[in-house]
Amino acid sequence: MRCASLTIHKEEFSFSAGHFTIFSATEREQLHGHNYSVSVSFKFNIEHNGLSFDYRHYKKKILALCDQLDRHFLLPSQSPYLQVEAEGDYWIAHFNQKKIPFLKEDVILLPLTNITIEELSHWFLQQIIAEQATLPQHAIHGITVEVYNGPGQSAGASIANMPFVKEAVHDGRED
């Protein structure tokens, strides 16, 4: 069995979003934004026909995830230092005894402890591997996601040695 890797880093795998990084219970960045981009690398077995798998499935998924986040303000819902509550059409973020209001339509709450490229790379990875059934079908045994918040700066999340079971193809001959 031959192994290979494939990296997908397309121009359309990008999104613009606002955020702030939380450093402690009393310190955070000012509100600002980035033009993010995403790349995904797969480790897999090469099949007998010289192909790996039809990676259009993953390209669509990555594009949909980027589109979901694009032009929104991202807030972490799991931060020990930030509490977010609904109030009518608004999300009210409570930080260091201050209230920061956001229109709900402008915000995506993510189940993260902070909005950093490290956390975003793990979020993308979790979304990609959520469909566990497709990974064995494609003989994928490793995935790395990199999220960039500008040229030359990225963070990544990986999962390796993923077990997979692929049905053996028999041609009718005895082994």
Structural commentary:
There is one protein chain. With 175 residues, the chain is an alpha+beta fold. It has one domain (2-160): 6-pyruvoyl tetrahydropterin synthase/QueD (Tetrahydropterin Synthase, Chain A). It has helices spanning 56-69, 117-129, 134-137, and strands spanning 2-8, 14-19, 32-46, 72-76, 82-87, 90-95, 98-103, 107-110, 140-150, 153-160. Strands 1, 2, 3, 4, 8, 9 and 10 form a 7-stranded mixed sheet that branches. Strand 5 (82-87) and strand 6 (90-95) form a beta hairpin. It is elongated and about 60 Å long. The protein starts with a strand and ends in a 15-residue tail after the last strand. 23% of the residues are buried.
Summing up helix and strand content along with how strands pair, one would put the structural category as alpha+beta
According to CATH, the fold-level topology is Tetrahydropterin Synthase, Chain A
Low-confidence parts, pLDDT < 50 over ≥5 residues?
Answer: 164-175
Q: End-to-end span in angstroms?
A: 17 Å
Number of helical stretches of at least 4 residues: 3
Q: Work out the number of β strands.
A: 10
- Which band does the percent of strand residues land in? 35-45%
Give the oligomeric state of the chains in this entry, treating copies of one chain as homo and distinct chains as hetero: single chain
Total domains, how many?
Answer: 1
Residues in helices, as a percent range: 10-25%
Q: What integer is the average pLDDT?
A: 89
The CATH superfamily title: 6-pyruvoyl tetrahydropterin synthase/QueD
Order of helices and strands: EEEHEEEEEHHEE
CATH class: Alpha Beta
Major sheet attributes: 7 strands, mixed
Shape: elongated
Supply the CATH architecture.
2-Layer Sandwich
Our Rg estimate from Cα atoms comes to 20 Å
